[in-house]
C-alpha cells in the first residue's frame, strides 16, 4: 500500500541535512543568518534603486554603503576609546588592584564569586575595552573571514534572495508551501521591528544614562553614556556590562553611594527595564505576541545561539506562535462545515 505522504520524504531528508549543516558550520553560518536578516530589511530599498539602476549595481551600492557605515562606526568607537584610554586604564587598574589586595574580600559585600573568577572577568573587560587592538590582531584571520562571509552573503541575498526563495518554495510540498507563504509576511515584520527596536533602545540608553552619570559625579558623562549605548548596541553585551564595570569601580573606590546609583538607577532602571519591558512590548505589539514570551525568546536566543540569537530567538518564537494560530484556524475552519452538515442531517 503506497503511503499518501510519500512526497514529504525528500523534503524531510533535505530538511534534516540542512539542520545538520547548520549545526556543523554554525561558527561561520551565524554571519550568513545575520546578513540574510539584514538583506530582508533592506530589500525594499534595493527594489526602489532597481527602478533606476541594474540589480547588481543596486546590490553592490547597498553592500558598499553598509561596509562604509560599519567602518565609520568602528573608527568612531576606536577614536572615543583612544581619547579616553587613560580613564579606562584607571577604571580597570583600580578594580584589579582592589581584587588583588588580600585585605579585600568580595564575600563581605555579598559577592559569592571567587576572586579568581572576578579577576578573569576583569581581564576579559580589559581585553575588550583597553587592549582591544591586541585582541583584534590575535583573531584577525577569523574576523576577516567572518567579515567576508557577512558582506558577500549580504550582497548575494540582495541580488538573488527573491529568486532563491521562489525556487525553494517551488520544490516544497503544497501544504508546506502554503504554510511558508503565510509565514513570510510575519517574518519580514519581525525582522524589521527587531532592528528598529535595537537601535531605538541604544539611543534611549544613551539619553537616559546622561542624568544617571551626572548624579554619579565622576565627570566624563558623555563617555560613560556612550559606553552604555555602545554595549547596548551589541546584543551579546548589553548596557548592563557598562553599569557593572562602573559599579565595580565605585566599589573599588569605596564609594557606596556611587555603587547604589549604578545598581538602582543604572542596572535596574536604565539597563534592565528596557530589556524586560520596553523591548518585548515593542516587538510583541507589532507581531501580536505576549511580551513575556517575546522576552524569553530574546534572552534564550542570545544565551543559546550567541549573536545570531538576537535575530533567531524572537523570530523562532514568532514563527511558532504564528504556526500554531494558522493550525488552530484551519482546524476551526474544517470543523464548521462538518458541524453545518450534521445540523442539516438532523433537520431532515
Characterise the protein shown here.
It is a single chain. By secondary structure, the chain is mainly α. It folds into two domains: 1-172, no CATH class; 173-329. It has 13 helices and no strands. The protein has helices at residues 8-24, 26-49, 55-83, 85-100, 115-129, 132-138, 140-170, 174-216, 221-233, 240-253, 256-287, 291-305, 309-347. The longest helix has 43 residues, at 174-216. The relative contact order is 0.08.
Secondary-structure blueprint:
Blueprint: H1 8-24, H2 26-49, H3 55-83, H4 85-100, H5 115-129, H6 132-138, H7 140-170, H8 174-216, H9 221-233, H10 240-253, H11 256-287, H12 291-305, H13 309-347
Order of helical and strand elements? HHHHHHHHHHHHH
Q: Count structural domains.
A: 2
Helix share of residues?
A: over 70%
Shape: globular
Main sheet?
A: none
Number of separate strands: 0
- Report the uncertain regions: none
**Tally of individual helices:** 13
Amino acid at each position: 500500500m503506497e503511503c499518501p505522504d510519500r512526497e514529504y520524504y525528500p523534503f524531510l531528508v533535505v530538511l534534516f541535512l540542512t539542520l545538520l549543516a547548520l549545526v556543523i558550520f554554525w561558527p561561520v553560518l551565524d554571519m550568513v543568518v545575520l546578513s540574510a536578516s539584514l538583506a530582508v530589511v533592506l530589500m525594499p530599498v534595493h527594489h526602489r534603486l532597481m527602478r533606476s539602476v541594474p540589480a547588481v549595481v543596486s546590490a553592490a551600492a547597498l553592500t558598499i554603503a553598509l561596509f562604509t557605515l560599519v567602518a565609520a562606526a568602528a573608527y568612531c568607537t576606536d577614536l572615543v576609546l583612544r581619547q579616553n584610554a587613560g580613564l579606562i586604564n584607571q577604571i580597570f587598574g583600580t578594580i584589579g588592584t582592589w581584587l588583588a589586595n588580600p585585605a579585600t574580600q568580595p564575600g563581605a559585600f555579598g559577592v559569592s564569586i571567587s576572586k579568581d573568577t572576578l579577576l578573569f572577568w576583569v581581564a576579559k573587560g580589559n581585553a575588550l575595552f583597553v587592549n582591544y587592538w591586541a585582541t583584534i590582531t590575535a583573531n584577525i584571520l577569523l574576523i576577516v573571514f567572518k567579515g567576508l562571509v557577512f558582506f558577500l552573503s549580504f550582497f548575494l541575498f540582495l541580488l538573488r534572495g527573491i529568486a532563491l526563495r521562489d525556487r525553494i518554495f517551488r520544490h516544497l510540498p503544497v501544504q508546506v508551501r502554503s504554510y511558508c507563504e503565510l509565514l513570510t509576511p510575519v517574518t519580514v515584520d519581525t525582522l524589521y521591528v527587531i532592528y528598529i527596536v535595537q537601535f531605538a533602545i541604544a539611543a534611549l540608553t544613551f539619553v537616559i544614562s546622561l542624568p544617571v552619570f551626572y548624579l554619579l559625579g565622576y565627570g566624563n558623562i558623555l563617555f560613560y553614556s556612550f559606553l552604555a549605548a555602545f554595549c547596548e548596541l551589541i546584543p551579546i553585551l548589553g548596557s548592563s556590562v557598562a553599569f557593572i564595570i562602573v559599579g565595580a569601580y565605585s566599589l573599588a573606590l569605596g564609594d557606596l553611594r556611587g555603587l547604589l546609583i549604578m545598581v538602582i538607577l543604572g542596572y535596574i532602571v536604565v539597563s534592565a527595564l528596557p530589556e524586560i519591558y520596553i523591548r518585548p512590548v515593542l516587538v510583541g505589539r507589532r507581531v501580536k505576541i505576549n511580551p513575556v514570551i517575546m522576552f524569553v525568546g530574546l534572552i534564550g536566543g542570545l544565551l543559546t545561539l550567541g549573536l545570531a540569537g538576537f535575530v533567531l530567538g524572537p523570530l523562532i518564537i514568532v514563527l511558532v506562535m504564528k504556526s500554531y494560530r494558522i493550525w488552530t484556524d484551519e482546524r476551526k475552519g474544517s470543523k464548521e462545515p462538518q458541524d453545518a452538515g450534521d445540523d442539516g442531517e438532523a433537520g431532515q
